[in-house]
Amino acid sequence: MIEAEKASYTISRMCRLLRVDRRRFYEWRQRQATGPTPTEQRRADLTEKIRVFHVASDGTYGAPRILHDLREAGEVVSRKTVAKCMRLAKIVGISPRTWHPPTTTAGPNPDPAPDLVKREFDKGKPNLVWFSDITYLDTGEGWAYLCAVRDGHTRRVLGRSIADHLRADLVDVTLRQAVALRGHLPEKVIFHADRGCQYTSQQIADLAGELDLLRSMGRTGVCWDNAPAESFWSTLKNEYYHRHVFPTIEAARRGTYLWIDAWYNAHRRHSAIGYLSPLQYEQHLARQAEQTALQAA
């Protein structure tokens, strides 16, 4: 304002009336004339790159994941610097909402299994433990039900199915997807879930025998016994589902499958696996295995 009105009023008078330090005003005008300092220019450039990565994450990433995006792009930067740039630019990621543990009710004729996991969710290698659960999705046509199967080590979603019912067929289809994706496995996989009526059904017990899987179940109503599944639902709901409206069950199916396959599995960075995506991490493990085999040959 002072700069704009300097032809009409003296700078001294405007600074006095507006209670602005005249020396500060002249320092500001000098900076405007000479342009930003190297530090200011660096921060501006970094903030622009942060915006690009934030948009690419659909507005979900906070400082930790954007930091890894920047470093992968060749930037040498600290987490504190990224967080400060985001704070000044009012760029924020998505924080998990408060979560309330659900109650799982077994069916009338349950066929339960022991807990073979004991909350040791990551056994250190892929295909040792798979986790599964079912969640609800609200659509314009009524409730849809999403079942997912994930690898406990790589965090990859191996199977996902959405239906308009909660029958055991939903779990059947999803589990067959996971087995088809992985192919023949040298060891029996532990298939862990809660004690919902679908998982305790005779149909899934027979399917586990057919597919040579070891069934495992947490305790009824104890959400922490299947924590990885609940964590995945939190990510899905907060980063995708709650931000969209689905007029039909088919729209929910297409959108959710796309988010899981094209974003979560392929690109979303996961803190537990070195901020790689599940697919990147599995590729990393495959390269390590090849190098070990070559060295042993």
Structure description:
With 297 residues, the protein is an alpha/beta fold. The chain is built from 10 helices and 5 strands. It has helices at residues 11-18, 22-34, 38-56, 63-72, 79-89, 168-182, 202-211, 227-239, 249-265, 278-296; strands spanning 129-139, 142-151, 157-163, 189-193, 213-217. A 5-stranded mixed β-sheet has the order 3-2-1-4-5, sandwiched between helices. A hairpin with a 2-residue loop joins strand 1 and strand 2. Residues 99-104 have low confidence and may be disordered.
SSE order: HHHHHEEEHEHEHHH
Overall geometry = elongated
pLDDT < 50 runs, ≥5 residues:
99-104
Strand arrangement within the widest β-sheet reads 3-2-1-4-5
Rg value: 27 Å
Q: How many distinct helices?
A: 10
Measured by DSSP, the beta-strand proportion falls in 5-15%
Biggest sheet character: 5 strands, mixed
Would you tell me the structural class of the helices and strands? alpha/beta
The averaged pLDDT comes out at 86
| Helix share bin | 40-55%
> Whole-Å distance between the termini?
75 Å
Number of strands: 5
Per-chain topology:
Blueprint: H1 11-18, H2 22-34, H3 38-56, H4 63-72, H5 79-89, E1 129-139, E2 142-151, E3 157-163, H6 168-182, E4 189-193, H7 202-211, E5 213-217, H8 227-239, H9 249-265, H10 278-296
Parallel strand pairs: 1-4, 4-5
Antiparallel strand pairs: 1-2, 2-3
Helix pairs in contact: 3-5, 4-5, 6-7
Could you provide a short overview of the structure?
It is built from ten helices and five strands. It has helices at residues 11-18, 22-34, 38-56, 63-72, 79-89, 168-182, 202-211, 227-239, 249-265, 278-296, and strands spanning 129-139, 142-151, 157-163, 189-193, 213-217.
